[in-house]
Amino acid sequence: MSDLFATPSDAALPLHLVAEADFDGWIADQPDSVKTWVGANGFTGALGQALVVPGPGGAPELALAGYGTAATRARARFHLAAAAAKLPKGDYRIASGLPTEDAAVEALGWLLASYRFDRYHDATPMAARLVAPEDIDTDRVTAIATGEMLTRDLINTPASDMGPPELEQAARDLAGRFDASIDVVVGDDLLERNFPMIHAVGRAADRAPRLIDMTWGDEGPKLTLVGKGVCFDTGGLNLKPGSSMGLMKKDMGGAAAVLGLAHMIMATGARLQLRVLIPAVENAVSSNAFRPQDILTSRKGLTVEINNTDAEGRLVLADALALADEGAPDLIVSMATLTGAARVAVGPDLAPFFCDDGLFVTALEHAAATEHDPVWRLPFHTPYEAMIEPGIADLDNAPKGGFAGAITAALFLRRFVTETPRYAHFDIYGWQPLDAPARAKGGVGQATRALLAALPDILDA
């Protein structure tokens, strides 16, 4: 993993970060040749600008990266990454201008800017490589970047090559890398092991549904991560229109996120007992597909009326959450690309979460700000419980009316966590719609870096 950073050497070009407010003072101290070159190229310190300055013999002598203003930085993340992507081939070391408190985040942004999804075609690598800034935890930053790249790779891979068996293999590969244990329940064995809703959602697909169960660590607090692994979602018999099906390879984004977070946790050697549960299915159309108005009995014994087969994610999560809850860990976190309502509420960039534990909320929101990994709290609004109670069964998987869809989905999931003191649910998007610094268009992790940073405060309290 360490090869993500360049090896320190005298050949690395010094890189100066220059904010707009500091530009006049910086340029005044430079020799005339630098002043002339910088002026001729229009460098002003604007955010994202990049410039290599030649020395007397014409060879590069230093490089500049614009660091903008407080206002422009507030509207963006990973400020150095915007300039890094424009620098020519070579190794660079930070010489000045990078605030110490931002060094780790900006170094991470540089690494994430180098991400390329090249499984199906040759992708030009980013030319500029960074020598790790002094006084950052290089191994930790590298572990985070590698975990995020894993998440992106998994989401970006189409369902033809990322079905339930391939998602299982990705979990097995991760387990093997860190000497974790893994157990997988497949196909009709799901019924024998009492995972009826995972089986019902996935039984129509050619590739069998499964529950992936990975464990790591034997001391410290117990953390269970549950990730929605719907590898493709047609909507089932309530078939999605084509315009809504186009991004459904990303419907396993919750599984991808928890596997990326698990990598970060294990690679940094966190002192905790980790469990990762992933119900991996395809929601397909066939003669044996589950139907609207079917009533399913969950692992927990609660009955669920199916009013829309396209609200399948909460069904597979429910069985996995019931299993997680039986272990009574200190904390359960579920992550899922669950509802369009969450996107309407907060858009693609924010990761909404639900949690009633004040310590968790405070620690996570603080970490989200410092890690530049934004989240937004939505309420487990208990008065809406009546909306998920259909009368004919204990629960309704798709309440009518269209109001508060993200909240009612979260309340549905909460019904399956009754023995665990702390539960948090994240309704993520898992997709970057447009290219942005350090976040290429495509699959993306959300809230995982914030969670990693917050876990010590949450679990050690």
TrEMBL record:
A Gene Ontology BP annotation from the UniProt entry: proteolysis
An example Gene Ontology molecular-function term: manganese ion binding
Kindly name one Pfam family recorded for this protein.
Peptidase_M17
UniProt keyword Manganese present: yes
One annotated Gene Ontology cellular component of this protein? cytoplasm
> Which of UniProt's keywords are assigned here?
Aminopeptidase, Hydrolase, Manganese, Protease
Segments forming domain Cytosol aminopeptidase:
308-315
InterPro entries the UniProt entry points to: Leucine_aapep/pepB, Macro_dom-like, Peptidase_M17_C, Peptidase_M17_N_1
Q: Which family does it belong to?
A: Belongs to the peptidase M17 family.
Protein name as it appears in the record: Leucyl aminopeptidase family protein
